[in-house]
Amino acid sequence: MEPVGPADPDADASRRARRAAIHRALGDERRLAVVDALRLSDRTPGELAELTGLGSNLVAFHLGVLEEVGLIERTASEGDARRRYVRLRVATLAELGAAPGLVADEVLFICTQNAARSQLAAALWERATGRPAGSAGQQPAPAVHPLAVATAARHGIDLSAARPQGYDAVVTAPDLVVSVCDRAREAGPPFAAPTLHWSVPDPIAGGPEEFEAAYRELAVRIDLLASSVTTAA
């Protein structure tokens, strides 16, 4: 066995400095409230102001602090480019524990075409929980995207028999609707159920790397959601 070399003191100091900055940022209960509001769902700044009871100027200030230490990011909607979503970074999501309080037996994942992200999310939910999930799209594509099928296969998930479907094909009323597409969220899903939103970039215009990135983000989010949702039974 090769001897283990000494740790890099500069790297260690940099990591400690970042951890200290994060702890300072989260030492304010108002910023903790913002982070809690983002644990299971991406939000607009206006929604964060409403949920936390903070004014828009205060929300903007606290978002700046959280962004500076690398806990959040702000992205333009792929639907209405004037809209901005605030989201916890994937690395931050992976470090969070469960956020209990949701009860749902029937979870439905939606995106515009039901050809990639919502299909992957439903399959990941079924693998993580052992419970079935539905997926649907506002404008369903003729088939699941081949790169979504290939990406799922690399991770041991078989989507070869999956077929996109529209909202009208959903026969069981969902208890929870998760939009994984900005356009689907902004169009307004026609279901009388609580909603969460994940602003996952659309991989369809890209290649294998974009599909893999979408899969990785969905996998982290699904694990957190699965640990946070209980069934009514």
Structure description:
This protein is α/β, with parallel strands linked by helices. The protein has 2 domains: 85 residues, Winged helix-like DNA-binding domain superfamily/Winged helix DNA-binding domain (Arc Repressor Mutant, subunit A); 129 residues, Response regulator (Rossmann fold), CATH 3.40.50.2300. The protein contains 9 helices and 8 strands. It has a 4-stranded parallel sheet with strand order 5-4-6-7. A two-stranded antiparallel ribbon has the order 1-2. A two-stranded parallel sheet has the order 3-8. A hairpin with a 7-residue loop joins strand 1 and strand 2. Helix 3 crosses helix 4, helix 6 packs across helix 9 and helix 7 crosses helix 9. The protein is globular and about 50 Å long. The model has no long low-confidence stretch (mean pLDDT 91).
Short description:
With 233 residues, this protein is α/β, with parallel strands linked by helices. It has nine helices and eight strands.
Q: What percent of the residues sit in helical stretches (DSSP H or I)? A: 40-55%
Number of domains: 2
CATH superfamily of the largest domain: Response regulator
What is the average of the pLDDT values?
A: 91
Could you tell me the CATH topology label of the largest domain. Rossmann fold
Strand tally is 8
| N- and C-termini, Cα separation | 53 Å
Strand order of the largest sheet: 5-4-6-7
Stretches with pLDDT under 50, minimum 5 residues: none
